Amino acid sequence: MIEKKPLTGLTSKELSALATVLGAPGEYGYVIAKWIYRKRAKSLSEINDLPKRILKELEQEGYEISNAIGIDSFPGTDGSTRYLLTNPNGQYYESVFMDNGKRKTLCVSSQSGCRMGCRFCMTGSIGFMGNLDTSSIVDQVLVVPESKSINRLVIMGMGEPFDNYDAIEKALEIFTANWGLALGKANITLSTVGIANKLEPFLSKQPCNLAISLHSPFPEERAMLMPVENSSPIERVIDILKRYPLKKPVRLSFEYVALSGINTSEEHAKAIAALLKGLKYHLNIIPWNEHPAAQFNKPEKEELYRFTSWLNQNGVLWTIRHSKGNETGAACGQMAGKWQSTS
Ligand code: SF4
Fold first, then answer.
1. Does the beta carbon of 160 sit less than 6 angstroms from any atom of ligand 1?
2. Distances from the Cα of 51 to the Cαs of 20, 22, 35, 238, in angstroms?
3. Fold that domain 5-64 belongs to in CATH
4. How many Å lie between the centroid of ligand 1 and the Cα of residue 41?
5. Active site (annotated) includes residue 121
6. Does this model's pTM top 0.90?
7. Separation between Cα atoms, residue 271 and residue 250, nearest integer Å
8. Which residues contact 15 (CB under 8 A, 6 or more apart)?
9. Is the Cβ atom of 333 under 6 angstroms away from ligand 1?
């Protein structure tokens, strides 16, 4: 049996090389890319401006547009829907659509599970089932039914994008290229724990907005919450960010999961301001989303109010982001793929 191969995940250049191998002009690659990413063709038979012979040859070689399989969807009452997907490698991963009126956001995964082991995160607790290839990353934007309407894309689902750098780099090219999904780079945000040796190549290209997970300004406490601090200290990350500042239209932000009684003191507010001094950034505070795999508490309104007042006093610009998808296990840090849906 011929192995099925997806065309999603290939760049226009790679599709041109494929056309050439089949004895067709390289420009056909550009035409195929437009059908896949712009016209969102579901099957090769929809392509009506290329010779039938080429399409037949692609089919005979085992190519198909996509090989993602949608397994289930979990609509919430807050305008979000969690989608559970799988691919022929047997990897499970999740995407979440969030409808905020004019703002329609899709959150995509970069890995199946995650090996970063952040203590507050459900995904971190289920372990690592492997990197997603570019096809499975890009497919999420093509397969989710509402994805035609999205105007924001966030790479904040399962996994650490910088731990799957090559696949993410190619996916970003497809998300932003004219022959691809043509999303503006200021409308895409990649969230990372901050793996220093991947930060430099990312910042030299600046393909989209960058969100760094901070969660504590104190190295020891951050290492307790995020083991990555031991191999990639936040001070080194900040140093790189200062050397390669993000330039408009892309922006830098820091993510801060607020854990009651842990990281919301006046000392934390002062230390955040001191640590990030000299950078142009915004701090996104995410009240922790409860799940069974971690023993933290969500801060009450009063605690958040006190914390944000101290941030104000120290000149930190912040926004509290209440995650959507709490009731369906789709909120930040709650994604658990197959495991959560079957529990
Ligand atoms: S917070 Fe992100 S990087 Fe950390 S374990 Fe969860 S998915 Fe991985």
1. yes
2. 14, 12, 14, 53
3. DNA polymerase; domain 1 (1.10.150)
4. 33
5. no
6. yes
7. 26
8. 7, 28, 29, 30, 32, 33
9. yes
**Which residue's CA is minimally distant from atom 7 of ligand 1?**
159
Residue 220 CA to residue 117 CA, distance in Å, equals: 16
Q: Is 229 in the pocket of ligand 1 (CB under 6 A)?
A: no
Cα 289 from Cα 294, distance rounded (Å): 10
Catalytic residue among 114, 118, 121, 332: 332
Identify the CATH assignment for 79-342 out of 3.20.20.70, 3.20.20.240, 3.40.50.10540, 1.20.1440.230. Answer: 3.20.20.70
> If you measure from the C-alpha of residue 124 to the centroid of ligand 1, how many angstroms do you get, rounded to a whole number?
5
State the sign of the Cα–Cα–Cα–Cα dihedral 263, 266, 269, 273.
negative
| Residue 326 alpha carbon to ligand 1 centre in Å | 17
Residue 334 has pLDDT above 70, yes or no: no
Compute the mean pLDDT over every residue in the chain, rounded to the nearest whole number: 91
What is the chain's Cα-based Rg?
Answer: 21
- Confidence band for 292, pLDDT divided at 50, 70 and 90: confident
- pLDDT per position as a tens digit, 188-237: 999 999 999 999 999 999 999 999 999 999 999 999 999 999 999 999 99
332 is a catalytic site residue: yes
Determine the Cα–Cα distance for residues 328 and 341; give it in Å rounded to an integer: 9
Does 121 sit in the ligand 1 pocket, CB within 6 Å? yes
Is the C-beta atom of 276 inside 6 A of ligand 1? no
Q: Determine which residue's CA is closest to atom 3 belonging to ligand 1.
A: 160
Domain ranges of the chain: 5-64, 79-342
Tell me the per-residue pLDDT of 113-127, one tens digit each, with 9 for 90 and over: 999 999 988 887 788
